[in-house]
Design goal:
The complex is a heterodimer of chains A (about 350) and B (about 160). By secondary structure, chain A is mostly helical. Chain A is built from 13 helices and no strands. In chain A, about 65% of the residues lie in helices and about 0% in strands. Chain A is globular. Chain B is of the alpha+beta class and about 160 residues long. The chains are: A mainly alpha (about 350), B alpha+beta (about 160).
Chain lengths: ~350, ~160
């Protein structure tokens, strides 16, 4: 944080970073939930969504919902494995929090600039499947168990194309650090023209599409929402949850959507960087720029979510194993050849 | 797996277009919809026309019309005639908690005493308050719209046979 000419002890720094991360997840969940789940979906269905809470276009609706969940009774079923049941939502949310650790919002504004940033982000994002499995197994409910098993199968199947889609970006940038990937895009050039840097969405458009599809499945959003399919499994692994534990799952869902949107924006759209902006202005503009890009990516995610119907379980697996993974592998090979040739 | 990309993109186009078109929602307490002229909002009573013949009450499928009346003698119309007996309405209640808005009472009334009104704002916190007495039903009569003129070229209304 020397850019801001502030010298503060590492303890305070750590506390500050932890506070930011703790705020970013619920805030991201609120912003995405309000903008897309409440408003965009409503307008795509020719309705307005909540209009009254808070006065202006119902912006307070989700906060009110959250407060409502907090004051509800914390119900644990009699046959449930109490400790596991109580702890499962926490794991889901922790995996979301951990993802934000490596996502940069400015030249130095990052909690931990790991050398293996991408690897770490994708690894912790798959932690949530453990929470989901715990929730489904400990609920002592057949719907919850079915949902959890579906979630496990789905997340394992789509973890692979997600990783393979990112490999192209990593090869092109020559680093796994997210800061390195951002600066590679900011300082890159397209055939010698460096007017807008070199956002990897142009060269890695296939990787971007694969990443978005796989992220959609990782988030278990429609068309890949079999784990929580309302018409088949009531609410899947969340079926026995109520009150603030359900709120945890909700925050986890939309917080992870925020994290994946931020990750996609960082990997493919240049993250916090604007071409030609360096130093202090980049530091100040960074969060805003990332937010705009993040919202753009999230718009794509939720647009797909509110358009398509749900796939069947076998179709889901077929798409991952027979379609996405071969394409991702071909993408890697082509990227490698071009990287070596040029 | 068949190649379904054009359909998928078309679907995205439809949702995007719908999003830009604006909502059809009417923000009810703040703005009100004008119900069509012949909508079945509430049944109004024109008390002067009612002869308490009980036809509506008997036709009502869920027995939500309560009528009580008594007879009074009135002097003869012409000299040397007999005094007439007239039905007077004591009670005419419609229980809107029961009413299913079928409109059979309006159809069956031979004296044009019952009308549909498009008014719909009469919900109550207490279910007993949904029983509208004849004064309340008479107030609704002021909201009954004029009969709309027939369309050009429509068949003339059949005159009632004398």
């Amino acid at each position: 944080m020397s850019v801001l000419a502030l010298e503060i002890g590492w303890g305070w720094m750590l506390a500050f970073k932890a506070l930011v991360i703790l705020l970013i997840v619920p805030l991201g969940a609120l912003v995405l939930g309000y903008t897309f789940l409440l408003k965009m979906m409503s307008h795509m269905q020719s309705r307005l969504g909540p209009m009254d809470p808070g006065g202006f276009h119902g912006w307070f609706q989700l906060v009110g919902d959250g407060l409502k969940f907090l004051q509800k009774e914390d119900i644990i079923p009699e046959d449930a494995d109490r400790r596991v049941f109580a702890f499962a939502p926490v794991i889901v949310v922790i995996s979301t929090f951990l993802m934000f650790v490596v996502i940069p919002i400015g030249p130095v504004a990052i909690v931990a600039n790991l050398d293996v940033g991408v690897f770490y982000a994708l690894a912790v994002s798959s932690l949530s499947v453990i929470g989901v499995l715990m929730a489904g197994w400990s609920s002592a409910n057949k719907f919850a168990l079915m949902g959890a098993l579906r979630a496990a199968g789905q997340l394992i199947a789509y973890e692979l194309p997600l990783l393979l889609a990112v490999v192209g970006v990593v090869m092109q940038a020559g680093t796994m650090s997210l800061q390195g990937i951002v600066s590679a895009q900011q300082n890159g050039s397209i055939f010698g023209w460096s007017g807008i840097g070199n956002p990897f969405i142009f060269t890695q458009i296939i990787g971007f599409l694969l990443f978005m599809i796989a992220a959609q499945a990782e988030l278990s959003q429609t068309p890949f929402d079999m784990p929580v399919a309302e018409s088949e499994l009531v609410a899947g692994y969340m079926v026995e949850y109520s009150g603030f534990r359900f709120l945890f799952f909700f925050i986890g869902e939309f917080g992870t959507a925020t994290a994946f949107a931020a990750l996609a924006a960082t990997l493919f759209l240049g993250g916090w960087s604007l071409p030609g902006v360096h130093g202090l202005p980049a530091e100040l503009l960074g969060p805003l720029v990332l937010f705009v890009k993040l919202m753009g990516v999230a718009f794509l995610m939720f647009w797909v979510r509110f358009t398509y119907p749900r796939l069947r379980e076998d179709q889901l697996q077929a798409i991952a194993w027979k379609f996405l993974i071969p394409i991702a592998l071909a993408n890697i090979i082509v990227t490698a050849i071009i990287k070596v040739a040029f | 797996m068949a190649f379904k990309l054009p359909g998928l993109i078309g679907g995205l186009g439809i949702t995007f277009k719908t999003m830009l078109q604006g909502a059809v929602t009417v923000q009810y307490p703040h703005e009100k919809e004008q119900p069509p002229a012949r909508s079945r909002g509430v049944i109004a009573l024109h008390e002067d026309n009612c002869t308490s013949c009980m036809l509506c009450s008997r036709a009502c499928p869920d027995w939500c019309i309560y009528i009580e009346g008594h007879k009074e003698e009135r002097p003869a119309r012409r000299e040397g005639g007999r005094p007439r007996a007239v039905n007077l309405l004591d009670r005419f209640d419609i229980d809107y908690a029961l009413c299913m808005y079928c409109g059979i009472c309006v159809e069956v009334c031979p004296f044009d005493a019952l009308f549909w009104s498009p008014e719909y704002e009469y919900s109550e916190p207490n279910i007993a308050s949904l029983l509208h007495n004849k004064d309340r039903l008479g107030e609704w009569f002021h909201t009954v719209p004029e009969v709309e003129p027939l369309e050009v070229g429509a068949a003339p209304v059949a005159k009632a046979k004398k």
